Amino acid sequence: MRTHPIDRPSDLDVVRDSYDRVADNYVHMVVTTGFGDIHKGHPWLRASIDAFAATVGDLGPVLDVGCGPGTVTAYLAERGLDVSGVDLSPRMIENARRLHPECRFDVASATELDLAEASLGGVLGWWSLFNLPRDVLPQVLAMFARALKPGGHFITATHVGDEDALRTEAYGGVPVRWTTHQWQPDQLVDLIERAGLRPVAELRLPADELTGPGLVVMAERPR
């Protein structure tokens, strides 16, 4: 049995075009400043990814959904995981393939994945699911839950808040248009549980000079 792709909202086309425009600037920031680089980033975020890698181990393939230029995908591959990445933005994927030719990358929306049930050992939504409309995220989480093997793990990181934030420029002043859908920790954990996953770890991050407060949640498909 395979999971059924979800109808992609039309506003994700606008999100895709925006990320295409900022992709090269974003990659330049990663290369020159280490922004978004898991090797140089917040130690607790890096520890969360390390814990995910150790927990998933040899359970099976891992999918990095919204992989951007492939920084985390490559980090997990270095640790021996069978990992591939997908992203809505074709330009992000072009950069990922150029920077990390040893890894597998494809253009795909989180809503369009064709995943066999119980086929994955792990799924990441690392700072990549906050553009999904509020009525779509629960469907995507349920799809991830079905695609995970029993004992497989899902990890996500996102922005915390009570209101949605419209972004009109990003990464060097490039014009963009996307909405950051913010969640309170208990709201997101509830969505993850309703999708059929069991939360096993939660990390709350204070606001820093670049972003507001953040949240990391790791959850397991029950055996």
Number of strands: 9
The figure for the number of domains is 1
Category from helices, strands and their pairing:
alpha/beta
Low-confidence residue ranges: none
CATH class category label = Alpha Beta
- How much of the sequence lies in strands comes to 25-35%
| Strand arrangement across the biggest beta sheet | 3-2-1-4-5-9-8
**CATH A-level architecture:** 3-Layer(aba) Sandwich
Query: So, the CATH homologous superfamily?
Result: Vaccinia Virus protein VP39
Average pLDDT for all residues: 90
CATH topology: Rossmann fold
Q: Specify Rg, calculated over alpha carbons.
A: 16 Å
- How would you describe the shape? globular
Question: How helix-rich are the residues, as a percent range?
Answer: 25-40%
Helix-strand topology string: HHEHEHEEHEEEHEE
Question: What is the overall number of helices?
Answer: 6
Terminal Cα span: 18 Å
Largest sheet: 7 strands, mixed
List keywords for this structure.
34% helix; 223 residues; Rossmann fold; single chain; two-stranded antiparallel ribbon; globular; alpha/beta; 27% strand; seven-stranded mixed beta sheet
What does it look like?
This protein has 223 residues and is an alpha/beta fold. It has helices at residues 11-33, 43-56, 71-78, 90-99, 137-147, 185-194, and strands at 62-65, 83-87, 104-107, 120-126, 148-159, 165-170, 174-180, 198-205, 214-220. It has one domain: Vaccinia Virus protein VP39 (Rossmann fold), CATH 3.40.50. It has a seven-stranded mixed beta sheet with strand order 3-2-1-4-5-9-8, sandwiched between helices. Strands 6-7 form a two-stranded antiparallel ribbon. Strand 2 (83-87), helix 4 (90-99) and strand 3 form a beta-alpha-beta unit. The longest helix is centred in the N-terminal third of the chain and has 23 residues, at 11-33.
